[in-house]
Structure formats: structure tokens, C-alpha cells
């Protein structure tokens, strides 16, 4: 059993710490947000992630995890995982101030307490290339290089399947310039039932690998969206094209379903950040410029499709939005295409009703009472003129379409996830748009 401190209880920190505790380690969480800590002490996760709350409560019962709001209460650990947010600013720079502040607090505590406990600071946050070496230099400046080391250990968890991804990882990346520290972290992961390939590498390689993984996936998403758009012009079945493309083992089937553009906390910020870092190193990363442009246009096209069906405007119309999160199985609405479209519709003075099984609380924090929140899918479409599907939740895949049509005033149906057959919708009397189909 290893002693571990995790700083930050967001998606990455909480999932990582809970999973490490599940492997038999003793984990202390620290977060300056006292309300979050209070909630976690009660056994409740501050966000939705399948299976997380149950595991959180089980580990609390086993006294395997504990929660603190003061960093000084939990620094006597062999590993200190840093998992604080590093958002990308509008100019493309990565905001690392919180990460620097946390590490500085650790160093100050070690200096003031004259602590001799050796510890490894593990950076889980996504940070710019070169950041971890700066931390090594900072530790040297504090005269603490004999007790503290830094390791880059980027995460590759997907929201909605994070627990599964941790325990069934494709790989673990450990970057640093101290072989003993890298091996110590490797040993921590050796207690996993299925040990994935573990790459021991440099700081720069580990940092770049994280950005490369996310931006490559954003390229796949943008590419299939472009192919889908082309299908709408020339014909062809986008679902079949995706299956044929994905059957090639060199390509694989994942991230090949068209949609309203990528969102969330990773793809948008990491693509923009890597592009910006490239520019700072005097390299024009043309592919990433294209991806950002394609994704922006994909979101902007949503309102254009609706405008084409309502050439006389939206006065007096009610639009129903099914799905608010950027993907299914999460409550995360950051950078979601739904919020983008809703704002466009609000600007056009129409009434909006929404339903999402997990995303409405977070949406309320952003949009308040500017829209109406329904209790379920059918409540959302009651007396509406158009229904718009933007998230691929399972419950949206099995709607009683006859019931939906009966409940609506006008039967306009926009499926931006390709959940339904356009032919079937048209046969039922809907005026429909289904992504990737001619209309």
C-alpha cells in the first residue's frame, strides 16, 4: 500500500485517486473548494461519471480515501498527484497559474517544515511542452532536489467511461529525467490486474504525446464530419461509409460517427493549445488550423440548417432540444454544440424547451431561466414546432416517433447525431434533416 495525495477533485483528479485507492492504496484528496470537500465526505461525487459515486462510497466505507481543504494536512505522501485545471485562454495560451501555485505551495511547505520525506510530484494536468522541466528547475531553486522529484504522467481518460479507461488502459506514459522516480511510479501501476504497455520516456515526449492523442482524435472527428457533409451533396450513406472506413485496421472504427462538432474539456482546448505552442516555436501546424476551422463551421452550420427550414423566421415558434452535454454519459456541457445552437436560437427570439438526463443542472448555471427545462423527452416536444437531437444518449435512440409527432404542433425533426433513418422519419410525416443525408 502506497500513500498518495491527489490535489484537485475534478474529472481527472477524483477518478484517478478513486481508482488508485481501489488498487489498495491510501489516498488523500485536497481541494480548496470547501463545498466540494463537504459533498465528497458525504460520499457524493460533484459530477456525473458512470460508476464513480458507487466506488466513492465503497472506498469511504473502507477508510481508503479521505478529503481535506488544506494542503498542509496531506503532504506526507510518497506520491503527490497534481490534477488542477489548465484551460486554454482565448489567445491559445494554456493557463498554468493554478498548477504553478500548487507546486509552489508544496515547495514552501517542504521548505518551512524542513520535511525530509521523499516524495514524487506527479503531474496529471495537461501542460505545455517544457512545463515539467520548469518545475524541476524550480525545485532546484528551492534547494529541494534531494527530496522532491517531478514526473509527467498524462491521463487518457474519456468522460463517460473514465473508470473503464483507467482499469483497461491502452497505455501508461511516464515522463521524466530521474530513472528511479519513473520506476517508482511504474511500480505503483504494476498492481493493476491487466497491466498495459508502460512507456518510460522524457518530459517532452510525455507532454507531446498527450496533445498528439487528443488532437489526432479531433482530426478523425473533423474528417468524418467533412465526409458526412459531402454525402449530403453527392449522395451516399454516411453510416456505411463510416463502417467501411472503420473496418480498415489501420484506421479503426472509433470517432468515425458524424455529429454537430466536438466539444468538452479536452479536444477544443488541446487542439488550440498545441497549435499555439507550435506557433511559438515558429512552426505553422496547418492541420490543426484546418481542424479548428472545420469544427467551428460544423457548429455554425447547425443554425443554417434550421434557417433553411424556417425561411420566414422563428416568431412564435418553439424549438425542442434533446441533449445538452457534448457527448452521452456525462454531465459536462463545456463547449457543447447544444449551447452554441441555443444561443443562436435565443438571438432569433424563439422559445426553447430542453431535456437532457444529466446536463440540465450545469446548463441552468449558464443559461438560467432563458430556456424551459422539461422533465423528459416527451414533455420537451409537447406543442413544439421542431425537435433537434444533439447528444447521442441511449434514451434518444428509442423514441416513440409516432407519439412524438402526435405531441408536436409542426413535425420538423433535426437529427444531428444520425440516430434515425431519414426515410422512416419522412414516411411518418416528419419534415426531416438527418446528418449525412441529402435533404
Task: Please sum up the structure shown.
The protein is α/β, with parallel strands linked by helices and 439 residues long. Helix content is 44%, strand content 14%. It has two domains: 3-201, NAD(P)-binding Rossmann-like Domain (Rossmann fold, 3-Layer(aba) Sandwich), CATH 3.40.50; 202-438, NAD(P)-binding Rossmann-like Domain (Rossmann fold), CATH 3.40.50.720.
Output the keywords:
single chain, 439 residues, alpha/beta, Rossmann fold, six-stranded parallel sheet, 17 helices
Please explain how this structure is put together.
- There is one protein chain.
- The chain is of the alpha/beta class and 439 residues long.
- It folds into two domains: 199 residues, NAD(P)-binding Rossmann-like Domain (Rossmann fold, 3-Layer(aba) Sandwich), CATH 3.40.50.720; 237 residues, NAD(P)-binding Rossmann-like Domain (Rossmann fold).
- The protein contains 17 helices and 14 strands.
- The strands form three sheets. The protein has a six-stranded parallel beta sheet, with helices on both faces.
- The longest helix is centred in the middle third of the chain and has 32 residues.
- The protein is elongated and about 75 Å long.
- The mean pLDDT is 96.
Strand order of the largest sheet: 3-2-1-4-5-6
Total number of domains: 2
Question: What does the radius of gyration come to?
Answer: 24 Å
**Largest pleated sheet:** 6 strands, parallel
The parts where pLDDT drops under 50 for at least 5 residues are: none
CATH class of the largest domain: Alpha Beta
Helix content: 40-55%
| C-alpha end-to-end distance | 60 Å
Per CATH, the architecture of the largest domain is 3-Layer(aba) Sandwich
The overall average pLDDT, rounded, is 96
Number of strands: 14
Number of helices: 17
Amino acid at each position: 500500500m502506497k500513500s498518495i495525495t491527489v490535489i484537485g477533485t475534478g474529472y481527472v483528479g477524483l477518478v484517478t485517486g478513486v481508482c488508485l485507492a481501489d488498487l489498495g492504496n491510501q489516498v488523500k484528496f485536497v481541494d480548496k473548494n470547501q463545498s466540494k470537500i463537504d459533498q465528497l465526505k458525504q460520499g457524493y461525487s460533484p459530477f456525473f461519471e458512470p460508476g464513480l459515486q458507487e466506488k466513492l462510497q465503497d472506498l469511504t466505507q473502507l477508510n481508503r480515501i479521505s478529503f481535506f481543504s488544506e494542503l498542509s494536512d496531506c503532504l506526507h505522501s510518497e506520491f503527490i498527484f497534481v490534477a488542477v485545471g489548465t484551460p486554454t485562454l482565448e489567445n491559445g495560451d494554456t493557463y498554468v497559474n493554478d498548477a504553478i501555485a500548487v507546486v509552489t505551495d508544496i515547495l514552501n511547505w517542504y521548505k518551512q517544515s524542513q520535511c525530509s520525506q521523499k516524495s514524487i510530484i506527479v503531474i496529471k494536468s495537461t501542460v505545455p511542452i517544457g512545463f515539467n522541466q520548469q518545475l524541476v528547475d524550480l525545485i532546484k531553486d528551492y534547494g529541494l532536489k534531494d527530496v522532491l522529484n517531478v514526473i509527467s504522467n498524462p491521463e487518457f481518460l474519456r468522460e463517460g467511461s473514465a473508470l473503464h479507461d483507467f482499469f483497461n488502459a491502452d497505455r501508461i506514459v511516464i515522463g521524466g529525467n530521474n530513472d528511479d522516480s519513473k520506476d517508482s511510479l511504474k511500480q505503483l501501476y504494476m498492481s493493476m490486474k491487466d497491466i498495459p504497455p508502460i512507456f518510460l520516456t522524457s518530459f517532452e515526449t510525455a507532454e507531446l504525446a498527450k496533445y498528439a492523442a487528443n488532437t489526432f482524435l479531433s482530426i478523425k472527428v473533423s474528417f468524418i464530419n467533412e465526409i458526412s457533409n459531402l454525402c449530403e451533396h453527392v449522395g451516399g450513406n454516411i453510416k456505411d461509409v463510416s463502417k467501411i472506413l472503420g473496418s480498415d485496421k489501420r484506421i479503426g472504427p472509433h470517432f468515425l460517427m458524424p455529429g454537430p462538432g466536438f466539444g468538452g474539456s479536452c479536444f477544443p482546448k488541446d487542439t488550440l493549445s498545441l497549435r499555439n505552442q507550435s506557433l511559438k516555436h515558429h512552426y505553422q501546424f496547418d492541420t490543426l488550423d484546418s481542424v479548428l476551422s472545420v469544427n467551428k463551421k460544423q457548429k455554425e452550420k447547425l443554425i443554417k440548417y434550421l434557417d433553411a427550414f424556417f425561411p420566414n423566421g422563428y416568431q412564435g415558434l418553439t424549438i425542442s432540444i434533446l441533449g445538452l452535454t457534448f457527448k452521452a454519459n456525462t454531465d459536462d456541457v463545456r463547449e457543447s454544440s447544444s449551447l452554441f445552437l441555443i444561443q443562436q436560437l435565443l438571438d432569433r427570439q424563439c422559445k426553447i424547451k430542453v431535456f437532457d438526463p444529466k446536463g440540465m443542472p450545469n446548463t441552468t448555471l449558464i443559461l438560467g431561466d432563458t430556456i424551459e427545462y422539461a422533465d423528459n423527452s416527451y414533455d420537451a416536444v409537447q406543442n413544439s414546432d421542431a425537435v433537434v437531437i444533439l447528444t447521442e444518449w441511449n434514451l434518444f435512440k428509442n423514441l416513440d416517433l409516432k407519439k412524438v409527432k402526435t405531441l408536436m404542433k409542426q413535425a420538423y425533426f433535426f437529427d444531428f447525431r444520425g440516430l434515425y433513418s431519414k426515410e422512416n422519419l419522412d414516411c411518418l410525416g416528419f419534415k426531416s434533416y438527418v446528418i449525412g443525408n441529402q435533404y
